[in-house]
Amino acid sequence: MSKQGFWYRAFDLYYDGFRNMKLGKTLWAIIFIKLFIMFAILKVFFFPNFLKSHTVEGGESDYVASEMIERAH
């Protein structure tokens, strides 16, 4: 890879910046932990699979189409 290429320079900028961080690493760890909690744990408990509970296997598109037609009127 050429050292003059955009992707190399962008990677080098971020790599060098993260390597020299002290507080930033802790803040990024907190951000990733919060994202994991929001998307992995909360989804399981608070956002059930609505289509799976209201349709049979393979009928999801028919259910969505019929709901869209009903709500358009």
- Low-confidence region ranges: none
Helix content: over 70%
Envelope shape: elongated
Oligomer category: single chain
Overall residue-averaged pLDDT value: 82
Order of helices and strands: HHHH
- Give the biggest beta sheet: none
Number of helices: 4
Whole-angstrom Rg? 23 Å
How many DSSP E strands?
Answer: 0
Roughly what fraction of the amino acids lie in strands?
A: under 5%
Question: Helices, strands, pairings?
Answer:
Layout: H1 6-19, H2 23-46, H3 50-54, H4 60-72
Gist of the model:
The chain is mainly α and 73 residues long.
Plain-language structure description:
- The chain is an all-alpha fold and 73 residues long.
- It has helices at residues 6-19, 23-46, 50-54, 60-72.
- The radius of gyration is 23 Å and the shape is elongated.
- The N and C termini lie far apart (58 Å).
